[in-house]
Amino acid sequence: MIDDTLTLLSMIGLASQFFASALLAILYTLLGREVRRRFYFRLWGRGWTALALALAVLVLRFELMPALGLQPQNRVVSRAFIGLYVLGKLAWCLFFVVGTLQYVQAVRRPRTLRTGAIVATLYAATVAVFATARPGDVMVWQSPVMAGALGYCAWLMLRVPLSRRRLGSRFTGWAFAANALLWLAYGFVFAVANAHPGDVAAPLALLVAGNSFVDQMVGIALGYGMVVLLLEDAKREVDAAHAELSGAHHELRRSALYDPITGSLNRRAYEEGVGLEQARATFGAVAMMDLDNLKDVNDTQGHGAGDALLRRLADALRGGLRPSDKLYRWGGDEFLLIMPGAGVDDLLRRVESLLASAGAPPILVSIGAAPFEGTDSLSDAIPVADSAMYEEKKRRKLAAGRAKASA
Question: Is residue 258 part of a domain?
Answer without folding.
Answer: no
